[in-house]
Specification:
99 residues, alpha+beta, four-stranded antiparallel sheet, 4 strands, flat
């Protein structure tokens, strides 16, 4: 059995109105690929080191291949263009612990 995959985003929003449109368009694409939001912009606080400098979003997908397929999907690419114009980000993927 494969492990779940988590896509982690640190996003600095420069245009809140456009970013809200991105969020509205992106959410159904996440669900359509079996993903779900674990964290969606909650307040971060440092326990050790520096706190996140930006909005944090964590997505969970059934596996890495599904996460990559979502990110490459035409539906998400349309939304991503809006996000890229409305924010800057750092995004990475990590594998969860295998069951």
């Amino acid at each position: 059995m494969t492990s779940k995959a988590y896509e982690i985003h640190e996003i600095v929003v420069s245009d809140a109105e456009a970013y809200a449109e991105y969020a509205r368009l992106a959410a159904p694409t996440v669900a359509a690929h079996g993903g779900r939001y674990i964290v969606r912009g909650g307040t971060g606080a440092a326990i050790t080191g520096e706190a996140p400098a930006a909005r944090v979003v964590i997505l969970e997908f059934p596996d890495r291949d599904t996460a990559i397929a979502w990110r490459a999907s035409p539906e998400y690419q349309a939304a991503l263009k809006i996000r890229e114009a409305a924010s800057t980000s750092r995004v990475y993927i990590v594998d969860g612990v295998a069951p």
